[in-house]
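User: Please predict the structure of the protein below. I'd like the answer in structure-token form so I can feed it into my own downstream comparison script.

Assistant: Understood. Taking the following sequence of 92 residues as input:
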Amino acid sequence: MASIKIPTPLRVYTGNQAEVTVTGSTVGQALDSLIAQHPDLKTHLYQEDRLRNFVNVFLGDEDIRFLQGVDTAIAPDAKLRIIPSIAGGARV
């Protein structure tokens, strides 16, 4: 089955699981499966029906935004990763 690696800040919503097994033949279906298992994640991943701007989803080493987005097809044993954008820093 496909799986999604969960970043540390979101693990509180997955019962501290670092990786969740999901079903689906597209990235969007896999994310739907993740949210069905852990509904509290939805507001952290989506704004209305779209992935939040600061939420990056990778299929292997590829950002899905440069593929077909949530419509990107995945293999049954796909490895997805959610990587939140990090902003900030200080000028020196």
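That's the full token string. The mean pLDDT is 93.
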